[in-house]
Amino acid sequence: MQNTLPAVHILKILLPAGILLALPKLANATIYAALDNGEEQSTAASSAAAPYGDPGFNNVGLLNSASCVYLGTYATGSWVISARHVWEENSSVSTVVFGGTTYGIAPDSCTVLANPNQNISDLCIFRVDGSIASNVALHNLSIIENTPPVGTYVRMIGNGDGRDGTLRYWDATWAETTQASAVTLGFNLTSGRKVRWADNSVASTNISLDDGTVTFWTLFGEINQGSISLGLGQGQATSGDSGGATFAYVNNEWVLAGILEAVGSILTSSPGTPMDRVFMGEITASADLSIYREQIMTAIPEAGTLIPLVIAGACAVALRRHRRKQTRPMQQREG
Fold this sequence. Notes:
By secondary structure, the protein is mainly beta.
């Protein structure tokens, strides 16, 4: 396990959270599109369809306006995973949507996973209508067994906001400026959520969020002698993506490695970052599913009795109790 990034201040948790995808290739060739098997995707539309070598694009669905991931159908039922804060923010929602088809959520089926310190994590799994098993576009996912090493190629998929087509430069006060005077650069966000994908690589591992959820991070832009530049295949989470998937390419196959959780920045230690943009130096935190794999497989074995960890009725109480213990303020994006 290693932590290769400077100290990061978590600026906002993605309530329901999303992904900046398909960055444009500019005339000066300093910014590249999200990659598809080594070839640039130059339009937003291309990231809103399953990519070549698809790891599970159709397995990412909608929980209201946020994201969730279909794990598969087992002896104990058909299971979906999402971020707990997405579940709590949408507690009145009784359905999920995958590929335009709506499926009911089984009552009282929420299982909240535990952190290594035994506190509740920001992950939950729940059952959905078994008819989802007949959807041929979906398949059972393999969950990563070990933390993905730094440098591992990942693909993020979520139901997030998009970006406008103009590369912008900002100074330290977040006022728009010239390239020569800029502290960072990036894009303004636009409305209109849809499931999109983007590529990146693992930049740091074994980092716990304020609630104890163990994550790995990707970086939007590359650190090079103190400067920030956007490299090939960079994706960044935005509003709507929380609960979405981070797949890792391990041993020549795609496995579900993480669930999109939160974003932060290596550029500032203050919570004053605007919520309406994404910028170089921003990070995406994904819950490391290798840490929680045993709990998931206990709940959804091929055969056996379901062993709930925390059922839905206790979720709201536990969330309120846990939030009182947080010592560092989190700035939240609106869903």
